[in-house]
């Protein structure tokens, strides 16, 4: 599947947890650029309504008490009008799941068309919903250290119910992209050297491929060039740093691999429609 103009997002588990989560309490318009990541994502709406959620060019609305699942490597985006909602996003790195359940490579999710749910899936969701609700409530405030045990147990239980109740055998086309080890190698190398000057020549030498082959394969699989991906990843890291750190903007730019504040601003404007100053002011 072509992924035109879709950024790859590298999902890192939170400290001391094997997965990533984010709580949302919004009453304003929200835009998330098209992107994809090697993680299975669950969006659960605790209160309110989420509209304008796109997965592989199909639009979804998620009502209160409902969930939406974004499969690993599916292109997704959000363009939500001003509308109140409280929700939680959970992201489980595909590598982590595959280590526990290697057969996940041959499975695909059938969660997002609720009208097609069978009796056993409706029953499974009756078990899953209170777990997701509890996870939202637990993460609505900063976690205590002991809470990490509880939320991890809940997360694994939710993942078990999801995989056991809402997956079927995957088509060969879906398996093909998941098994593209070259793309994973490129992504992993860039993530490890994100803050360093990095050229296509160096990347090709490190992975023992020609520059042309590396560029062609990455573009075929992701719909974007390696350089574009690198800039998008630096912008993602900068966005996070600007929200978390109280440091001069030029220092954050340098720490995220940009050669100037201007180049960081240019990347942030493309990906988040905001400058570094605007993002930092929101924290």
Keywords:
8-stranded mixed sheet, disordered N terminus, 283 residues, two-stranded antiparallel sheet, alpha+beta
Mean pLDDT: 84
Helix content: 40-55%
Report the structural category: alpha+beta
Cα-atom radius of gyration = 19 Å
Q: Tell me the major beta sheet.
A: 8 strands, mixed
Helix and strand string, N-terminal first? Answer: EEEEEEEEHEHHEHHHHHHHH
Q: Overview of this structure, please?
A:
With 283 residues, the protein is α+β, with helices and mostly antiparallel strands. 46% of the residues lie in helices and 22% in strands. The protein contains eleven helices and ten strands. It has helices at 94-100, 119-139, 147-165, 172-178, 181-192, 200-207, 211-222, 226-244, 249-255, 261-272, 276-281; strands at 7-8, 20-26, 30-36, 39-55, 58-63, 67-70, 76-80, 85-93, 107-109, 167-169. The strands form two sheets. Strands 1, 2, 3, 4, 5, 6, 7 and 8 form an eight-stranded mixed beta sheet that branches. The chain has a two-stranded antiparallel ribbon with strand order 9-10. β4 (39-55) and β5 (58-63) form a beta hairpin. α2 runs antiparallel to α3 (147-165). The chain is globular, with a radius of gyration of 19 Å. The chain starts with 6 loop residues before the first strand and ends with a helix.
